[in-house]
Specification:
This protein is α/β, with parallel strands linked by helices. 30% of the residues lie in helices and 22% in strands.
């Protein structure tokens, strides 16, 4: 039985024994009608805690960790929304930390794809 495994930007065909292989396909859930609104609402109304805006003072230093280029997290949307929410904190007090694990550091072009060119140009962004 041939199975196409996701690999890099494409697929890697692999043969498995018929009758001994089960392929579990992902289920697809429709996206939120307004992602930005949902993220901001969650930041303003966390469960059992004060809002992020209330919890972080202007003088605090903030480190925002984000997943690297190997993960399908929509950082290019989430991170700018989060930074807009934290405009009371000076940019020089904010560091964005790329969670690499055992992966290689991401290039500047990859970081710009992950976070947007404006975020990379205006904030301290580090590969961990």
């Amino acid at each position: 039985m041939r199975v196409d495994l996701a690999y890099g930007q494409g697929y890697l065909p692999v043969e498995f024994p018929k009758g001994r292989t089960t392929v579990i396909s992902p289920s697809h859930t429709p996206g939120l009608p307004n992602e930005r609104e949902a993220v901001i609402r969650a930041l303003e109304n966390p469960i059992g805690a004060p809002s992020l805006h209330e919890s972080i003072k202007r003088t605090d230093r903030v480190c925002i960790s984000f997943s690297d280029i190997t993960r399908a997290t929509p950082n290019e949307r989430i991170i700018p929304w989060l930074l807009e929410h934290l405009t009371h904190v000076p940019r020089e007090n904010i560091t964005l930390l790329n969670q690499l694990g055992t992966h290689r550091p991401n290039t500047r072009a990859e970081l710009e794809k992950l976070l947007t060119p404006a975020v990379v140009a205006n904030y301290r962004v580090l590969n961990h």
